[in-house]
Amino acid sequence: MRFVPRAAHCSRENPRPVGVANRWIVGHDQVVDSMTGGVEGIRTKMLARRRGLSDGATAQASALVVERLLGLPELLSAGTVGAYMGVRGEVDPSLLRNDRRFEVALPVVSTGEALRFVVPDEPLLPGPYGIPQPGSGRELDPCSLDVVLVPLVVADLRGNRVGHGGGYYDRTFAECRGREDGGPLLIGICHAFQVVAALEARPWDVPVDLLVTDAGLIRPGS
Fold it and tell me: For a designed S-S bond to 134, which of 89, 118, 187, 219 qualifies (C-beta 3.0 to 4.6 A apart)?
């Protein structure tokens, strides 16, 4: 099942969407025009800023993002959701694991390979990069997931993203995009300061369909 974003979602806090560059922006009154220094420079700057957040600030932003996600009809109509465990200042969607309206699968990382998504049936184990991941459970085809929450370091208003450098999400979901149904809806989640006006897209990048931050929602192409 593929959800195609069409109209802007208006939260109680941000009742009126604002059109910016032909895209619906909700709650993002200020967006950084661009960042210089190439991909590695952008990644370094954003990671440093994110790591500098307090645990309290990260928890507050994560709670806001989860609240916004649970207001999306695309998520509430989903049967299976790919999520992740946030670390080092990332927006953390793991609270969604407590919601019984859908199944939450978590990524299993093997160096140099595509991601596997597993609905865990036991406590999580330490994985590569210090990220907890399932040690056992029911494995789902990534392309069969209804929605996938995608971590990122920086994203732009067109849905382009810079990840952490491993290429795992691009490798995993590039194949899904070639399917008739287009694969899962990809939702990038991050802090509002991680969104810039424009990034240079690279041939192998897989853009996200929707961005959700602590400040609001951005639907690229709407």
Answer: 118
